[in-house]
């Protein structure tokens, strides 16, 4: 009982100590959205094979090619921005004013 109370207390302490600048960010303001997404993921993993057992495999080749291309473009853009701003990933003062 004490372990669950300590865990619950430490979780809510970390939620209360959040950075207020991240409040408008999605999935950051509260642990509820991430918990719901995790529950949905578990539901899909558990029920997906049951649903697909008598189905033909889906043809996702075009969708996956588009996804991979978009991820390559996003990674290239992020690399370009980091190099353009001459940011060092090892800089300890990254993001300070």
From TrEMBL:
Record-annotated membrane-spanning stretches: 32-51, 63-80
One GO BP: fatty acid elongation, monounsaturated fatty acid
Catalytic activity as recorded in UniProt: a very-long-chain acyl-CoA + malonyl-CoA + H(+) = a very-long-chain 3-oxoacyl-CoA + CO2 + CoA
Keywords annotated in UniProt: Fatty acid biosynthesis, Fatty acid metabolism, Lipid biosynthesis, Lipid metabolism, Membrane, Transferase, Transmembrane, Transmembrane helix
Principal EC category: transferase
Gene Ontology molecular function, alphabetical: fatty acid elongase activity
GO cellular component term, pick one: endoplasmic reticulum membrane
Localization annotation: Membrane
InterPro entries: ELO_fam
Source organism, top-level taxon: Eukaryota
Main location: membrane
Signal sequence coordinates: none
Membrane topology type: Multi-pass membrane protein
Keyword Phosphoprotein among record annotations: no
EC nos: 2.3.1.199
PANTHER family registered for this protein in UniProt: ELONGATION OF VERY LONG CHAIN FATTY ACIDS PROTEIN, FATTY ACID ACYL TRANSFERASE-RELATED
Family, as annotated: Belongs to the ELO family.
The protein, known as: Elongation of very long chain fatty acids protein
